[in-house]
User: Fold these one by one.
Assistant:
Number 1:
Amino acid sequence: MKQLTNICAGIGSAVLLLGKSIGHAPTLLRQWPRFIEQCYLIGYTTLPIVAILSFFIGSVLALQAGYSMQSFGAKEFIGSLVGLSMARELGPVMVAILVAGRVGSAITAELASMKVYQEIDALETMNIPPSRILVLPRLAAVLVMMPVLTIIGDLVGWLGGAIVSKYTPFIALEPEKYFETLRRFMKFKDVLNGLEKAEVFGFFVVLVCCSIGLETRGGPREIGASVTRAVVVSLILILVLDYFVTKILI
Amino acid sequence: MTSDSSTRSPFSEAQTPAVSVNIEGLSKNFGDLVVLRDITLKVESGEIFVLMGPSGSGKSVLLKHIVGLEQPTAGRVLVDNRDATDPATREQVRMALVFQAGALFNSLSVYDNLALYPRENRLASEDGIQEKVMRALQILSLEGKAQKFPSELSGGMKKRVAIARALVMEPQLMMYDEPTSELDPIMSATISEIIATLKDEYHVTTIVVSHDRDLALNIADRVGILMGGKLAAIAPPAELRASTDPRIQDFLNPRIDLKNPRFKHLET
Ligand SMILES: Nc1ncnc2c1ncn2[C@@H]1O[C@H](COP(=O)(O)OP(=O)(O)O)[C@@H](O)[C@H]1O
Ligand SMILES: [Mg+2]
């Protein structure tokens, strides 16, 4: 029962925070430097790990597909299989999970510590709403960076699949063939659907992480607790949203 | 130029009326914990009011009610006759609170800490802001520290930066939460001098929460003692010293008694 009220309170404060931040949207232009800084933090710092993970996910997909398809001689379809799985599902989900772990946790830690050390209170007394200078630039930045990260993830994943398909002896599929089926069976809409998903995931992850950070009560010990909660809630949220958004998009 | 009823700006000749604070029947509970019980108190415009009291007696909570960071359970707080919980009050009355731990923005340099308020509220051009910030730093003898970060400063310096940051707001009402705690006696005296000087020069209404007896008895116009959520006394320092109330005498001049130590009969 208590947990249920906590969840409702959490959703309530996140919605409230969203409303307040959107209300400040017109100030985004004069907060340009903050927006750029957040784009850098969200995009640039997650890029290496997104590339590494996508590469291996694409490789594993190609390996598994090649293994199961060799028996019925359909290995030229590996390209379409890797391409579609990356673009529609694994790319966006993986990028969202990495953003939750790498960026979301950092956001919660920063805002929670500002809260605990009364920096947030100080902002309020100075008539500077935290939703304006702390939350809005992050939400805007994640909306810009998610599609970029996801496209890079998709491309690197496809490439990983192609390399594995060529150099694995029992697959030995030429890249031309691989990319030919990839192109033939994949429509622009598949990539677009993936980007839309990534957009939704990233936005809600950042919103939830901001909200949990700002709702932190108590002393320095609570900062760690908030970070853990933010990451767990983000991961659950990504998978739940994934189901519903996929259902809507299909 | 100073008249008794107006606050001078530290940065210009501008004068604004000094404000009073009216606390009327204020009570505050956190769940079952009763922190403030029916407090009534008026702080006159232009005075230094020092609020003393044991740790945990609710002094910080009282200050938060005045700046509108907490909602009263009962009663109300009026600043310049406007309700403190109304967000508009903060726009009409300039109040600054110097937090106990400073609450400096750790990710910003000293300069940017001071410049944030005028920048975000678009109160001056960048040149005007620079002038104000440097003037505030100069008033607190911090000129050399503009480019430092809070983590590079000593405790006393952080307190002074926090005061300078409050000063940039050109406050009509200035509040300090334990400004001398954790400081050595000399630095404590320095901070007391700063508080009194700022009040004399700019005529801001000043509320200081502190259990620093030297500060209270030397710079206060009136002292209030908060005990068990109630105001046990409000009086000018001289009267307070002469008080015959044993609780107040014990609080102001605790005797260290090793034969009958206090901690043996603290209620738990
Ligand atoms: N936000 C809060 N939630 C619950 N209890 C609080 C909160 N703020 C303060 N308290 C409690 O109120 C009491 C008074 O706190 P405070 O005003 O900080 O004391 P002090 O007089 O030392 O400044 C303490 O017991 C503290 O635990
Ligand atoms: Mg306190």
Number 2:
Amino acid sequence: MSVLVLVEPEDLDDLGAGLSVVSQEVLTFARSLPGDEVDAVLVGAVGQPTEAVLAHCREQGVRTLHVSPDARLERYAARAWARVVDAAAEAGGAAYLIGGGTPHGNEVLAHVAAARSVPMPCNVVAVVQSEPLEVERQVVGGAVLERVALGDGAGLAVASVAGHAVAPQAAPSPGPAHVAEVDVELTDADLAAQVVRIEAREGGDTSALTGANVVVGAGRGVGGPDQFDDVEALAARLGGAVGVSRVVTSLGWRPHHEQVGQTGSRIAPDLYLACGISGAIQHWAGCSSSKTIIAINTDGEAPMVTKARYAVIGDMHEVIPAVLEELS
Amino acid sequence: MADVLVCVKRAPDTSGEVVLTADGGSIDGRYAGYSMSSHEECAVEIAVSVAGDTGGSVTVLTLGDDDSVEQLRAALAVGADEAVRIDATADDYGPADVAAAIAEVVQARAGEGRPFDLVLVGNDAADTGDHQVGIRLAHLLDRPVVAGAQEVAVSGDRLEVRSSVSGPTEVFDVPMPAVLTVWEGGVEPRYPNISGRMKAKKARIEVLEPSGAPRGSGRLGLRVLPPPESNVEVLGEGKTAAPRLVDVLRELGVVR
Ligand SMILES: Cc1cc2nc3c(=O)[nH]c(=O)nc-3n(C[C@H](O)[C@H](O)[C@H](O)COP(=O)(O)OP(=O)(O)OC[C@H]3O[C@@H](n4cnc5c(N)ncnc54)[C@H](O)[C@@H]3O)c2cc1C
């Protein structure tokens, strides 16, 4: 019995960067499921996997890394990718199929689950009971955990694992990470919804935010669309990115790709410096995995302040300029 | 001309504190109120603008009890033409059940010679967060599906769809009929005007009985996470706290 993990590269354009952090987390999580072996499947990266990808797989104890040689899979097409994942599950005799609860991860896994008519609990965070296997998953943006069964012994058990639910940890002993090619006969229907081109966004995209070591967060407390200069200057000074709350994007002050939270991005930087953000559940869902949180807020009782490691109580537009001056 | 079906869900508003019902089986929204999620508000906006651009129509659908008519009327008020309610208790339905119930309506309409060219759902509901209803629906209908759709433009019988939820903007070109799961952030939902509200108030809601019994969501229980115990260290007040804050930044090694 094995567990198959759908893995994603850190950067589809630079496979030298290895696997995404979330994929490494899911490989770690896979070892908490009842399986003797962990296999992985990587789609969209045509050609031989890079040494960085293989190194991550070996470190995580992966037995076999399934890849697909079909050049038509290079551009994202969820249903076609799911066909490869499904075939890899078949080839490796997988009892469980899991992947990161990322937009692509959830989408591809849902295609596999739909094609096989099996359930797919999303955003699982922990195994809570082994026999029968039960897991907890995040609902309501992570404020509530729902307990569900995973797998009924009949057929493949499919689930996605919430980003940053576990920290990546090396396997007790490294795996061989044999590379195996999966070949599937793709149909036109599999490729009907495929990316035809990628457009760079003016002013960046979510990857700047999700990849940053430092994120300076800004919420309604900023005050207006023309009040971001100090926030941007601090982010630049710390080599980080700007992240914002939903209020800020809804008001049109900043673009949606900067939004942190349930309907934005999930981040896990070394430092999240949340300024003028109350810390609503849906925002917390996106930032709670940050290593250290510092809040700057006029309200000492705001949830962001009480949940933070450090806080400064005061007007962000007084505190940030003073910090910048102190740093200059 | 594109006839659009847009599916919405009445979900408890959970911006504040989350309360469970007495039996712990579901989320109690009686105090905070209910709404459709922002993904679905954007789906309604896309439906109305696609129908407007192509001279088509918008039908809004929900699976829910009598109270969920409120969410249908919210969509009617901003331009949906017709509303359908599948009479059921949403909590009894898992994502596969919901997809099957919607598929049945879509197929019935096609059978009457009034097919939907485009079906929109929210990417994931605010409460259950299943991320799969639209994809299961597409499989049942054998249609292409794009998840995380944020901007949609129709040209002839094809859709140009943009999604920026995974990083750089992915552009898809899909044939209709199709299914899209909509993610907020690409369009600005319009506000209802007075005449829209009046129209919505008077609109007839078609009520359909679901045909089969649902299999359910598999929910065994819910648990509200207790807030983590605060161990915050307040560094000070106002700008006088700046030196201490900078010390902490240096300790954390984030100052270059
Ligand atoms: C289904 C759903 C999904 C959602 N998804 C998201 C999401 O992805 N991301 C998200 O962020 N939200 C999301 N929300 C919204 C969320 O519930 C909150 O409404 C939102 O996060 C609040 O944003 P805020 O903290 O900027 O604003 P507020 O809650 O208004 O907080 C502003 C804070 O700024 C402080 N402040 C004011 N002035 C100053 C000043 N001069 N200096 C310092 N502090 C100041 C105030 O004390 C307050 O704490 C979602 C909601 C729902 C229902």
